[in-house]
Amino acid sequence: MSPGTTDRAVSRNLFRAIATDVHFWIPLSVLVGGLLLLDRLR
Amino acid sequence: MHATRLRRLQALGIFCGFAAGAWLGGAEAPIKLVNPDISPITVSLIMVCGVFLARWSVPAFVRGTAQVRNDVRQAPHLIIWAVLAGCMWAVANTLTIYAIRDVGLSIAFPLWNMNSLLGIFWGFLLFNELHYAGWRRWLGVVGGAVGMFAGATMLAIASSHQAAPGKAVLGVFAALGAGILWGTMYIPYRKAYLTGMNPLSFITFFTVGELVTMTVLAIGYRGATPLWHELVSARPVLFWLMLGGFVWVIGDLFQQYATKYVGISRGIPLSNTNQLWGLLWGILVFHELRGASRAVYAQVAGGSILMALGAAAIALSSATEREHSSWQDAADREGLRYGIEPEYVRAGMEGRARGKSPAGRIAIDWLLIASTTALFVVLAAMAEIPRRSLSLRWAAALAAAMSVVLAAGAVLLWRTTQFH
Questions:
Q1: Residue A17 belongs to what domain range?
Q2: Which of B76, B181, B337 faces A21 most closely, judged by CB atoms?
Q3: Which of B6, B8, B59, B337 gives a 20 to 30 Å CA spacing to B40?
Q4: CA count, 13 A, side-chain hemisphere, B214
């Protein structure tokens, strides 16, 4: 396997690990909520 | 981990929590020198620029950026977590501006200060903190945090002179939102330190999220051209604001080490003692509360004592070996999920280097340090000496106390972990 293909596989695994980590969605949802609130406050 | 080593790391984390309080509180001082005519969003943006410079130059000075690269190779997922945490910080900070505008500091501050209670909740739920801790430690940590919350409320009421303005409901939501964002921001922090990341590496990526989000918000809210004009006209105060940002980073760095070694449930409430330091600067240096009634002084004394007692209760409730082993379980789970070498995770938790560390500082590090120093010198030359009345003697005494705390913290961190 070429180095480029290996890098792509590593990145794919990394994003998959983050996307399936429930811990990631908690802060992300809170961030989106904060942005929506800021929009209301403007 | 050996019991003696665990006790040393716990003591170090607790000291870092108190040191964070001193420096985060001291960061308010340069900002108080600034003319209130500048928009709060612009003030935040300028501070974040100072923060950005500090978050790159301090790690370059302490360890060198080669170590940051080494950490990223080991745990690349943490770049995303750090940027996410930085975005959260910037949004929370902007929300506090609206909260103060709409409900005043006395209501807003205690509301967003409940972030430490949320931190305890996330620490328990997601990272096994306070598991097998026993009821005494539970009482120490939760009771201490509640005591600090009550003390902070009293201090905020006593030190606030704002009249209650309109838009109260939105203001309360803004303050609560800031507290929830900051409390939840500690999830990425803990995630990073459980998987062995060095705080000096984490903050370099954290600040990317911080600066980008703050810039987008500032341009979106003020408009690019008006923002630029405001930045240009703020030249005489750029130094004070960026200095505030720089001082804040030192405090935040101590907070990161506290989070790493005693967890979010203990580290965050301890660093919330910054309110006591902010109050000391306000009363002694800026003559705030001068001529206030006896009731106000009683509130300040009562609030300060409550905060100090709460902090002491938390400091005396450090993690037991059994609790620490459950942190290790959480660390193993994270390591497995993200494919991190177990030895890297273990070394990070034990505050030691894994294998041979890369060579010290390289040319780019010196370039970073030199350019940041040069920029601060130029800004200082342009800065105007504030005209407001202040006690230079007390300012020197408090700055000296902060320097002692910094020196002691640096020596302790170096001797115990070599800044790992």
A1: 3-41
A2: B337
A3: B59
A4: 28
pLDDT < 70 stretches in chain B: 35-36, 105-106, 159-167, 355-359
For B337, the domain range is 32-140+159-252+319-417
Q: How far apart are CA B89 and CA B181, in angstroms?
A: 7
Interface of B with A (CB under 8 A): 76-77, 80-81, 84-85, 87-88, 91-92, 94-95, 98, 102, 122, 126, 170, 173-174, 177-178, 180-181, 184-185, 187-188, 191, 217, 221, 337-339
pTM assigned to the model: 0.89
> How many domains does one find in chain B?
1
Tens of pLDDT, residue by residue over B264-297, are: 889 888 998 888 888 888 889 888 878 888 888 8
Helices (H), B195-234: 199-222, 224-233
Is residue B163 in some structural domain?
yes
- What is the total count of domains within chain A? 1
Distance CA B196, CA B325 (A): 15
pLDDT tens, position by position, B18-74: 999 999 989 878 877 776 678 888 888 998 999 999 999 999 999 888 888 888 888
Instruction: Decide if B77 and A17 are in contact by the 8 Å CB cutoff.
Output: yes
Closest CA to B373 of B61, B8, B44: B61
Q: Where are the beta strands (DSSP E) in A1-42?
A: none
According to the model, what pLDDT value does residue B83 have? 95
Confirm whether B295 is domain-assigned: no
